[in-house]
Structures are given as structure tokens and as C-alpha cells.
Amino acid sequence: MTGSWFAERICRHQAFLLTALLTTTNFLVVFDGLVVTVALPAMQHSLGLGQAGTQWIMTAYTLPLAGMLLLGGRCSDRYGRRPVLITGFGLFIAGLLLAGLAPALWLLLPGRMLQGAGAALAVPTSFAIISAQQSPRDRDRLFAAVAVAGGLGAAGGAIIGGIVTQGLGWRYVFLLSVPVALLAALATPKVLERQPPTSTAGGLDLPGAVLSMAGLMLLVFAITNTETAGAASFSTLVPLALSAVAFTGFLLHEHSTKDPLLRLGTLRVPSFRTAVLAMPTNEFAYQGSVFIGLLFFQQALGYSPLAAGLAFSPLGLVVLVGSSAANRLLRRFSWTAVAASAQFVSAVGLALLAVAGPGSAYLPHILPSMLILGLGTVVGAVSFNVAAGKDISAHDKGVGYGVFETAKYVAGVFAVAGLGSIAAARTSSADTASRAAALAAGYQLAFAVAAGIAVGGGVLVAVLGDSPGLTRGRRGHAPAVTGTSDAPPSTRTPAHVDKGNR
User: Fold this and answer.
1) Cβ(305)–Cβ(295) under 8 Å?
2) Tens digits of per-residue pLDDT, 233-253?
């Protein structure tokens, strides 16, 4: 009796539970990135680390995350969404515990690597689950909810990181996330149906996986190394060259193998191609606001770390309004029109920050720019997320979002390194009497560059456009699979594919 009642309650609230599960996944990944950044000075002091050790705390997380997103997406296609998502949570929890209890750097770094690997499995899997929803309204609603979770994770990470680090210590930055991740892992079997793994004859294409991981890790390492060693240094150029060799080998291997990690035909799907190429410009706008914005508030405007987090929080909170607006816009207009317009709105917000100086008041100058920028970035994020998976085969949704998230993540790393270097170079060359004015000049230039890139992204979307439905009927492309389960496509009824011109 009790079991029957519980099953009925689970079915009745399936949509709510699915939303809660997927938003928690994205919240944890975004929150972890920001909260650890805030705690770095305390970790450096507690463990007696130098600058190199502190940098490796971040690098140990970013390298496996960037390198394994493609593999994580393909694993979810081959072995099912549910087991891969649970595995991702398990690795993430193990990493949190190791990092939180680590007595020294030698144990902290493996913990961070486990966190990155877990996130690489969970993120593309969660997006593939959303993209497989039958109803376009439900799909857009879930993408909007995930965007809200990311915005709250960004706003909360900056604020909570300072409070927890000052009040409880840096270890609790990791340990307090364990119960949340554990609850999500335990809820996953209740939310996603048990289904047999997708049958494949060729396994995971391990050579392709190794080549893609090597290329991506070397690329991310080269980009992050430019902050300390410079773009023209030997330690930057060598990993960059090796990354190019690995990527060339990966493409050649994928073209020749019978069961590739990534079907290269997926890259020719118009909506997917446009989203992958243009979405990094939205990430530049977002990172320009988060990374450069937090430094600008503290170093140029003189805010405390907590005040800077509070000043930044409206950008995350406006996501609540922006996600709902994105939902409505996507029902009335094509995603390309919505995404291009969002990029131009983001550029306006960044341009307002580019003219702010040390004497600029939060009201009326800074707050409007944060609200405009938050609205533009969330509408753009929802639009690109919808476009990335709407026309690709159900067999390839996981790996498709692996590619999409990889491009987004690499763009974020490049944005932090590139905009930071631009700001530093302008600051060092500024002819001003005040240090705050010199710092402001550097951040103003970084904001202006980010605004230009956002405009370029809008133009790119308008030029590339979208030809919905071209993949249907093409040889080798299966119809989209819908719902929250992950049954093999051959065992389920094909659903109507939304044409995307909505």
C-alpha cells in the first residue's frame, strides 16, 4: 500500500523532480567554480602554498572537466543517462570529500580532479536529458530553469564563498556541497527510469577518446599558462602545438573509424553548428561580467569582497526574469532572432561598464548595466542550449552536448585568460596618477573588448542562420527520442521533432 502510494506520488511530481535534479546539477558545477575562487587566498595561507600551487588548485579541476566533456557525453549515449549521471555525482562527491579533508596539496589536487571528471560526466548528460523532452514548452522550461540555477550558482558562489571561508574555513566550501550532491545522486534512480544500456558494437572508441582528451587538456593548459608565462613563451607554445597535433589525429581517426566517438556529420547540422560556433561569444560576455566585474568592483571601485559579491548578485537574480522572457520569445520567434538580439543586449550592458570609472556610483550607473547584461546573457544561453540539441540524432545528443559544453568551457577559460591579460596590459601602460584609475582603465578596455565580441556573436548567428529539419531523412540520422528515460531508440516510438522555427 505504502509502496503504491509512493509510486503514485513520484509519477505525479515527475516533472518537478526532474527539474530539481537537473537544476541542482548545473548549480553545483557553477557554484563550485566560483566558491573555490573566493576561497583560494585562505587555502594558500592554510596549506603554505606558493603561486604555482594555488594555480594548480584551479587547473586540476579545469583540465579533466575540459578534456572529458566529449567522452562524458558519449558515455551517456552508449550506456544510458541514468547510470552515467549517478557515476558523475559519485565522482563529484568523492572529490569534494577528498578536497575538504585534504591535509596537503598532494591530496587536494586528486580531489579537484575527481570533481572535474564527475562534472564532465554529469553536465552533457543532463543537457541531453533536457533536449530529449517531447514537448518544446517543457524543453524550453527546463533549459530556462537550468539557466536560473547557473545564475543563482554564480551569485551565490561569490557571496557564500566569502561568508563560509571567513566564518567556517575554506574546507567547508567543499564539505557543505556534499549533502546536496548526495541527495541529487540518491534521487536520480527515482526520477529517471531504469533502461537497458544502448547497444553498440564498437565500444567507446578509446583512441578517439584519448586523442580528444589530450588535445583539449593541452589547449586549456596552454591558455591558462598565458596568464603567468605569456602567450609567446616556450611553455605556452609547445602545449599549443601538441594540442593541434592531437586534434588533427583525432579528426583523421574519427573520419576513418567505423564507430567514432563523434560522428563528424553531426557538425554539419545547421542549428548545432551555429550554436557551437556562436555560443562562445555569449560565454565571453558572461565571463567578462563575472571575472572582470568582480575584480573591477574590488580594485577600481574599492568594494570589499562581500560588497563586491552583493553588487554582482543582481546579474544572477535577473536570470529569474530573463529565463521566463527567453521561454516566451522562443515560442514566438526563431531561436536565431532571439539569440542574435540577446548578444546585442549583452553588448549594451558591457558597453555601460566600459565607461564606468572609479567615481561611478552603483546607482544609477552600475546596477542598470548588470541588469541589462544579465538579461542578455541568460536569454542567449537558453537560446543556444535549445538550438544545440533540437535537430541532432537521439543517438548523438549526449556527445553533441559534450561538444557544445566543451566549446563553451574552452571559451570561458580563454575569456578569463584573454580579458585578464588585456586588462593587465592596459593597466601597466596607463598614464595616470592613481592606481585605481589605472586599474579602471584596464578593466574598461576588457569590458569594451567583450562587448565587441558579443556584437560579433550576434552578427555570426544572423549570417550563419538556421535550416531546421535538414537532418531528418538524412542517412544515418535517427529521429529525436523524447522523455526522461534513456531507452535505446530502437525500442521506443519516434516522437515528432520540433522544427525549431518557433
Assistant:
1) no
2) 888 889 899 999 999 999 998
